[in-house]
Design goal:
By secondary structure, the chain is mainly alpha-helical. It has three domains: about 190 residues, no CATH class; about 160 residues, no CATH class; about 30 residues. It has 20 helices and five strands. A three-stranded mixed beta sheet has the order 3-5-4. Strands 1-2 form a two-stranded antiparallel ribbon. The chain is elongated and about 120 Å long. The relative contact order is 0.08.
Length: about 500
């Protein structure tokens, strides 16, 4: 049996000292919690706390009351729930948000190979050196970092600059290879190029456009963004947009990133009041006009379904020569709603990210794509009958329920179902909705629609109705002639 261990005197002294320190700390904590610190200690603690917080404030970029130039956001909330595949890259990461993701590492080696190919391109008789690219990346790093809405301090200045260089040169070389029709396994594989193109237009997967402009200038010797936009990007971005290559031009003002450019060509500006981003004057004017309206007109509402609108006397037509996808109009005089034909609906990934970008532009920016999706999802929400109506009108060219499902799914991405109500001041169809509501509220329009549907929907019912009217007229005439002799005798 082991003898009990005796504590060494020094150990005992140390233990007593530790106990004293712990007790002292406990007493101090008790005093602090009870607010019984003397004035000198309280002032010292406040000064220390202020110095620590001031250091954090001094590290913030920008100046007080200066809005940050955020242009790249991460999609959050209902738009992301159960739809991560629409917003996260599947093949290649661009920018800091998805950098280092395990399933995207295979493409990192291709970035280095594309950088080597870009360096090999001649520029004005000589090749741009790697050192010129690295100097540019380091100079652009502070400005580029400020465009991301989430903190990126987990990347050092050197790592961030290297990311800008690899990702930016990959994008430039990717489009240059496509323009040159160069033999390239990555370009020639159809499924790869579609996946890469999708990833390059994700909101979370963007580089500031001025980074691409700078690297493009180093690679080609051509300065300025117009040549990059018109000479290179327009050949690819206009393929799936309503904008034609011959009429494509850069948007007014600064281009934020590739998705911003795609949005500009997907929904070209229709008039001077729809100038898009950063037009505070136009936004304030639209808001004041919205606030000046009566409450019943300010409250948002959805359109009834196509079948309900048809029962209320509204006719659908495919719009001829629309100015854009969202060029929907309603003529209250004859009850005709014209909608651009949906020949082949857009890639769902691109459409979802266009919606996400549109909603990142600001609270008062006009939400044209959101308005269009909400309108289309509401008029086609009752299934086959609505789809048939839209098909007969020439709006749904495919004529199946897949198109209606597509818009219904996009409406869910906006934060609810087609029964949800969204903001009205940024809906570009506010006046259209008001006119449709007024038209549906007139009983004569509904009765006329029922008459046309029940008695003139096909030749046989039309002939029966005409025969009935003729019989009624003959009966009235016979009655008149029967009664007239009676009155003549008087």
């Amino acid at each position: 049996m082991d003898a009990p261990r005796m504590n060494h005197p020094l150990e005992a002294a140390g233990a007593d000292e530790s106990s004293t320190i712990v007790a002292s700390n406990d007493d101090k904590r008790t005093v602090e919690e009870s607010g019984e610190l003397d004035e000198e200690d309280a002032d010292a603690n406040a000064v220390e706390m202020a110095a620590r917080m001031q250091w954090r404030l001094d590290a913030l970029p920008g100046r007080p009351h200066e809005s940050e130039p955020f242009t790249v956001f991460r999609v959050t909330g209902p738009m992301r729930d159960r739809n991560r595949h629409l917003y996260e890259p599947q093949v290649v990461s661009i920018g800091p948000f998805h950098r280092g993701t395990a399933r995207l590492r295979a493409m990192e080696e291709h970035k280095w190979r594309y950088l080597r190919d870009l360096l090999a391109r001649s520029s004005g008789g000589g090749a741009a050196t790697l050192a010129s690219y690295t100097r540019a990346a380091q100079a652009l790093e502070p400005r580029a970092r400020r465009h991301y809405a989430e903190p990126t301090d987990y990347l050092s200045a050197r790592d961030f600059a290297e990311m800008l260089l690899l990702d930016g040169c990959f994008i430039i070389e990717f489009f240059l290879k496509g323009k040159d029709r160069a033999a390239e396994a990555l370009i020639d594989a159809a499924w790869v190029i579609q996946s890469v193109c999708n990833d390059l237009f994700l909101l979370e997967n963007q580089l500031p456009f001025f980074v691409l402009e700078h690297f493009y200038g180093l690679a080609t010797g051509v300065l300025g963004g117009d040549d990059l936009v018109i000479g290179l990007l327009a050949n690819y971005i206009t393929i799936e947009t309503p904008q034609e290559l011959a009429t494509a031009k850069p948007p007014d003002g600064e281009i934020h990133h590739l998705l911003h450019l795609y949005y500009h060509w997907f929904l070209p500006t229709e008039d001077a009041t729809l100038t898009g981003d950063n037009n505070r004057e136009a936004e304030d004017k639209a808001y004041k006009e919205w606030m000046a309206k009566p409450m019943d007109e300010r409250v948002p509402w959805l359109l009834p379904s196509a079948s309900e609108l048809q029962d209320a006397g509204i006719t659908f037509r495919a719009k001829k020569s629309p100015r854009s996808l969202v060029d929907v109009t309603f003529c209250a005089r004859d009850g005709v709603m014209e909608i651009p034909a949906v020949e082949s609906y857009t890639n769902r990934v691109l459409f979802a990210n266009l919606l996400a970008y549109e909603q990142s532009r600001g609270r008062w920016a006009l939400q044209r794509l959101m308005s269009y999706v909400t309108l289309m999802a509401s008029v086609a929400r009752d299934g086959r009958r609505d789809v048939d109506i839209m098909q007969r009108a020439g709006v749904f060219v495919k004529g199946d329920e897949e198109t209606a499902t597509f818009y219904a799914h996009l409406a869910v991405l906006l934060g609810g179902t087609t029964e949800a109500r969204g903001p009205a001041h940024d809906n570009c169809y506010t006046d259209l909705f008001r006119d449709v509501r007024e038209h549906c509220g007139r009983s004569w329009n509904r009765h006329r629609a029922v008459l046309a549907h029940d008695y003139f929907s096909n030749p046989w019912t039309s002939m029966s109705a005409a025969a009935a009217v003729l019989l009624l007229v003959l009966t009235v005439v016979q009655t008149v002639y029967t009664v007239l002799p009676y009155y003549d005798s008087w």
